[in-house]
Amino acid sequence: MTRHRALTYIHIAAILFGLTGVFGELIQASAAVITLGRAVFAVISLGLFARMRRRPLLGALTPAQLFVLVVAGALLAAHWVTFFISVKVGGIAIATLGFASFPAFITLFEGLIFRERVRLAEWLLLGLVTAGLVLVTPSFDLADQGTIGLAWGLLSGLTFALLALSNRRSASGMDPMQVACWQNLVVALVMLPFAVGQLPALPAVDWFWLLLLGVFCTGLSHFLFVSSLTRLNARSAGLVIALEPVYAIAFAWVLFSQQPTVRMMAGAALIVAAIVWSGLRKAPATAVENAPEGVPK
Q: How far apart are CA 74 and CA 117, in angstroms?
């Protein structure tokens, strides 16, 4: 693995993450069915990738680690469901930008829940994201579909922030491929009761989109992300992943004619700038320490 190949891997991963909303738009099923299908195909593909890398997924786990993985899997399920609802209601760009608010939620939670000191720069980060979201908001009328979609996107960002903090606090030192596989398995089990009744009516084309979503936007993207961390530190990888909203907006514009307004583009610029700034401020760390926290959606 050379640095050039690692950079190629991480950019492909960012593009695949940006395609997540596209599949959410294409698949006509409910958010619960999309989440279940994505998780099932992700577990299968992650198992294959782990076998290619000769990394065991069924290694011994302590009861405490299993508990962490179950809680994190439930948070991941909530994150995906709210994100796909946001896509259905508000569109790809709105959903992705709402999700991109998660660094602000992490800052708030670290200060309020974990009693960590929030520095001035972190408050400025929170202010940038807030200003960006104000610009992105179509209107402040709760009857507006775009506003409702953004609210679901913010909930998606909130649950992802809780997931990131859970992984940071409890999953450090665990193999990231193993973490991802077990968390996706938990997602599938959590969503099965809510979605199983809808599966017989699912058209073949939606199964095809779900296959692509689970294999490429989840399994392959995670494999590329983790592989890139053998040559890149988590900070550098995170800066590339910050381009995800840009890719998502571009895909929505080209494929679905969801043209962003000038206000939305300005808000997106502020949010992406905040994510990049947040990444630049973090000191480089080892891949093993940061990989579980940095697993994107």
A: 28
